[in-house]
Design brief:
Blueprint lengths: L7 H6 L2 H6 L2 H21 L6 H9 L6 H11 L2 H12 L13 H37 L4 E6 L2 E7 H24 L14 H6 L4 H14 L16 H29 L3 E2 L19 H16 L1 H8 L10 H27 L2 E2 L1 H15 L1 H10 L4 H20 L7 H6 L8 H6 L10 H19 L13
Antiparallel strand pairs: 1-2, 3-4
Helix pairs in contact: 3-4, 3-7, 3-10, 5-6, 7-8, 7-14, 7-20, 8-11, 8-20, 11-12, 11-13, 11-14, 12-14, 16-17
Length: about 475
């Protein structure tokens, strides 16, 4: 196979579980299940179909004669009719009732909905496991003070755990969107060539109620509550847009996380997993590049760009259907899911092995803390009898001097020494050091983490405990 293109999504990134969902075997076995559901429904509603015919169809449900189908498709240039033919070769008694009254989209579109629904459930399972890993991380580091950044400039401090809560909140929003779309997934049903069910109305001798029941029974047999009430030949391609929008939302959240990790790794405060024999750079042996986070960002860019595909398809469909969706759907939907699957495996792997360096965090924190503590210092000096306006101007000038020492001379931050040496403040070095407790400056960050975990995240994890325990396998 080294003489032809192979998708990196299957070779390097996506799990076997997600790959199987979009495999030919899954697709064509689902076609056959749909043909069985159709035959059973038509029998139940009075058509001359025997149990013997249905039993014959069930016997070969998962035993697909691919070579017969491929040879037939080369001849007739129609994938569905080729598989109808191949199925009929295995089931001579049922041959005449396979696909009765249906159009190609009966198997094609219903299968797409079934597969996307199953894939969304797998994405959901992995998303919840990422939330669980982040919850453990946030709880562990909820009290660890760290510099917060606005504009990537040092700002009012936070904690390492609170920062993880920000990552979790975005995933919770993604989960809400995912659950909304998942709850709204419906089958196309048996709508016929232009969605009017004309062929089924003919089969059922003009009985409109039986036509409606056919849709409902097929949906139930395939594990769905209902079918879309109206359609053309296909389900609305807007459904694909909604699905890929959910995937892009997850990609967006993961990308943001990966950016933060990469920046923190540059600061040497946090480091993603690095295996014993892993090589960080072909030239610089000492390097520990954040390759997993970079891969998350790269795949996320692909998924976010993928949103345009179903939008273009949905907006340019003509009337009851055109076939210019076919090739696009075969690419954009599976690859969007395979990429998000890889993203979530990487996300889980990074969080599971994330290394935090408290000493480095503390060093960076303490280098900036004197600037951040100036308001507290000024208040203490006022309480000791100083003039607030005069002290504000003095502390402004001393801060600028200390800043020059750091930036221009490469010295340590000596703001506390400068303040201690100014008689206007009336504060000793010991009194100033007492103000330097990092925990005084993180506000409610630890409490916010506790509240967020207790009120939002843990209820989600408890409700979905049966899907917890996933471990990510990174292929390469």
């Amino acid at each position: 196979m080294n003489d032809r293109y192979q998708s990196p999504l299957s070779e390097r990134y996506a799990s076997k579980e997600m790959q199987y969902i979009f495999s030919p075997d899954k697709k064509f076995c689902t076609w056959r299940k749909l043909w069985i559901a159709l035959a059973e429904t038509e029998k139940e509603l009075g058509l001359a179909i025997t149990q013997e015919q249905i039993d014959e169809l069930k016997k070969f449900q998962d035993d697909i004669n691919y070579e017969v189908a491929k040879e037939r498709e080369r001849l007739v240039r129609h994938d569905v009719m080729s598989h109808v033919y191949a199925y009929g070769q295995q089931c001579p008694k049922a041959k005449g009732i396979i696909h009765l009254g249906a159009t190609s989209c009966y198997v094609g579109d219903n299968t797409d909905i079934i597969i996307m629904t199953e894939a969304l459930r797998l994405v959901r399972k992995k998303l919840i496991n990422v939330l669980a890993a982040l919850a453990d991380f946030a709880d562990k580091y909820k009290n660890q003070p760290t510099l917060a950044f606005t504009h990537f400039q040092p700002a009012q401090p936070t904690t390492v755990g609170k920062r993880a809560a920000l990552w979790m909140q975005e995933l919770c929003l993604d989960l809400e969107d995912l659950d909304h779309v998942l709850a709204g997934m419906k089958l196309l049903g048996s709508k016929g060539t232009t969605g009017t069910q004309a062929s089924f109305l003919e089969l059922f001798d003009g009985d409109h109620d039986k036509c409606r029941k056919a849709d409902q029974r097929i949906a139930e047999k395939m594990g769905f509550k209902e079918c879309y009430p109206v359609s053309g030949q296909t389900y609305s391609r807007k459904v694909d847009t909604r699905v890929v929008n959910v995937l892009a939302g997850i990609a967006q959240s993961a990308h943001k996380f990966s950016n933060d990790i990469r920046l923190l790794q540059h600061l040497k405060e946090v480091e993603e997993p690095f295996e014993k024999n892993q090589i960080g750079s072909s030239a610089m042996a000492y390097k520990r590049n954040p390759m997993r986070s970079e891969r998350i960002a790269s795949l996320a860019n692909y998924v976010m760009a993928d949103v345009m595909n179903p939008m273009l398809v949905a907006s340019t469909q003509w009337f009851e259907r055109t076939l210019d969706d076919s090739a696009n759907k075969r690419l954009s939907i599976p690859e969007g899911f395979l990429a998000v699957d890889g993203i979530l495996d990487l996300y889980l792997n990074v969080v599971d092995g994330l290394v935090v360096y408290p000493k480095v965090i503390e060093k960076h924190f303490m280098a900036e803390l004197p600037f951040m503590a100036t308001e507290n210092i000024m208040m203490d000096a006022v309480k000791a009898g100083g003039d607030r306006q005069e002290l504000h101007e003095r502390i402004r000038k001393l801060s600028m001097e200390a800043g020059r020492n750091v930036k221009e001379k490469g010295l340590d931050n000596n703001l506390l020494e400068l303040i201690a040496g100014d008689p206007a403040f009336g504060l000793t070095m010991e009194e100033l050091q007492a103000v330097m407790d990092p925990k005084r400056y993180v506000g409610r960050a630890p409490q916010q983490v506790d509240e967020f975990l207790e009120e939002v995240v843990r209820p989600i994890l408890e409700e979905n405990k049966e899907v917890l325990g996933v471990k990510a396998e990174i292929l390469i």
